[in-house]
Amino acid sequence: MSAYQALYRKYRPQTFDDVTGQMAVTQTLKTQLVSGKMSHAYLFTGSRGTGKTSCAKILAKAVNCLNPQNGNPCNCCDACRTIDSGACMDVLEIDAASNNGVDNVRDLRDDAIYTPSQVKMRVYIIDEVHMLSVAAFNALLKIIEEPPEHLLFILATTELHKVPATILSRCQRFAFRRISQEDIAARLQYVAYQEKIDLDDSAARILARMADGGLRDGLSLLDQCASATTGELTAQQVYACLGIAGEQNCAELMGYIAQHDTAKALELFNRLYAEGKDLGALLDEMACLTRDLLILKTAPKAGLTLLSGVADDAEALKLKDAFSGGELVRMMEKLEQTLNNFTRSASRRMDAELCIISLCQPELQLDEASLNARLTRLEEQVKSGSFTVAAPPAAPKETPKKEEKPAPKQETEIPKEEPQPVQAPVEEAPVGFWTDLVSAVRQELRPPVSGFFITSPNAPIEGTLVGDKVVLGCNTPFTTEMVNKPEILSIVSRKASAILGRPVRAEAVDKSAAPQHSAGFQQLINFGREHSDIVNIKE
């Protein structure tokens, strides 16, 4: 029986098209391979798990492939199979962390002058190149600047600032960005489907958030959680397996802090501690939620698109009004300070409890941040009208009794003015409508249909608002068949109506069909061009 292979190794990309979330890098490399304008040295930079080493191996295969396909290696020829198996002596992957001496680089330089024996080009992949010593970097300079025609260097690093400028100037640099949570969640659902893992959509979002932009981390977490359960992998099982509190407990704890209820906050904290939750992960979740609330407080229009996903959007909007901006800044600083002190703390539990008490009772401290938090809270209460003096409320109670008689006249006049905004409904979709609709719909749908509703540029579904209708333009007949079901269209209609505040209905249309099959969609588009009633709501 063959040994089990980790998911991140089993599903490592084999072509540039398989790489997730790095379109700018992969497209440039494919264009260079097709046109033959290859550089002699490349430097791949970026955080962990974003595809640097995978792209380096794909590039090594592509330059030696006997049957390249639009810049991608065929993975079928003798050269590709030999490189994949690791038996090719002309493609070497070197770990700079364990081969960082000048003697290692000298041996590499002496071997590099020989022509390849098995493939067309000799390729050196040097991973974590920033670990080389200064003398090793100097020994590498000359051959990187003027290498033989058969030689290709591919350097990879996570710490670009440690690479000397003399090396940077001799390489083409490609920056690998962090992969978005949506792309990671979609890839996790694909892997789960291939491995016959029943992965819940909410669990996929949690794993994507925990991955922090690294797809390898997300696949490792999925591998860990899937091995701990035999049935459906839900959000609660992910919380239990990874030892994190979860969005519900985190939001509940934040609610007690907003109410300044220290007793209930400590009671909930002790329960989570008894259940074995990691204290560092708990405070980190609270810091992320505090950051989300601060963004919603300062940027309410675009805030929903910037949330980290620690708490539900509706829960975050509800907690936003419970804190002032000064309180959130103080809470963020306190949580970060406590997390930084965990590394040298004698009792993490005591530090975490003191942190929670300080968050619940800012009056215990007289520093500038605590005083500012209390003052900003009072200012917001005065602005909102919730802060009142105890004595005056008795006087205003008598005035409504005297004005009860003319009230019917005002009630008859108000309905005459109300129909004016109702009769002039705004056809233009509000900012962020498609993002909010996708987020709301994904909470009720299950894979694989939930994977179609995303906000990336190459999304399978493009939403268009046409009067009282949300047209779901599907890019393939398969997507149309999966989405064009009464129960799915009902969910989309209900969520869209709730967001817009007026009844709308959903309709699925196949954009890839022949004109005779997509006449309805073309009529809607032509009508919108003539009457300007259609607004593209895809973001």
In CATH, the homologous superfamily of the largest domain goes by the name P-loop containing nucleotide triphosphate hydrolases
Range of strand content: 5-15%
Low-pLDDT residue spans: 389-393, 401-405, 409-426, 532-539
User: What is the averaged pLDDT score?
Assistant: 80
Cα end-to-end separation: 49 Å
Beta strand count = 9
Radius of gyration: 29 Å
Strand order of the largest sheet: 2-3-4-1-5
Question: Can you walk through the features of this model?
Answer:
- This protein is of the alpha/beta class and 539 residues long.
- The protein folds into four domains: 7-176, P-loop containing nucleotide triphosphate hydrolases (Rossmann fold, 3-Layer(aba) Sandwich), CATH 3.40.50.300; 181-242, Helicase, Ruva Protein, domain 3 (Orthogonal Bundle); 247-380, Zinc Finger, Delta Prime, domain 3 (Up-down Bundle), CATH 1.20.272; 433-536, GMP Synthetase, Chain A, domain 3 (2-Layer Sandwich), CATH 3.30.300.
- 52% of the residues lie in helices and 9% in strands.
- It contains 25 helices and nine strands.
- It has helices spanning 7-10, 23-35, 52-64, 78-85, 102-112, 134-145, 165-168, 181-194, 201-211, 215-226, 235-242, 247-258, 262-274, 279-298, 313-320, 325-341, 348-360, 368-384, 394-402, 407-417, 419-423, 433-442, 477-483, 486-500, 519-531, and strands spanning 41-46, 91-95, 122-127, 151-157, 172-176, 461-466, 469-474, 505-510, 534-536.
- The strands form two sheets. The protein has a five-stranded parallel beta sheet, covered by helices on one side.
- Helix 6 (134-145) links the parallel strand 3 and strand 4 (151-157).
- Helix 16 (325-341) packs antiparallel against helix 17.
- The protein is globular and about 80 Å long.
- Mean pLDDT is 80; it is low at 389-393, 401-405, 409-426 and 532-539.
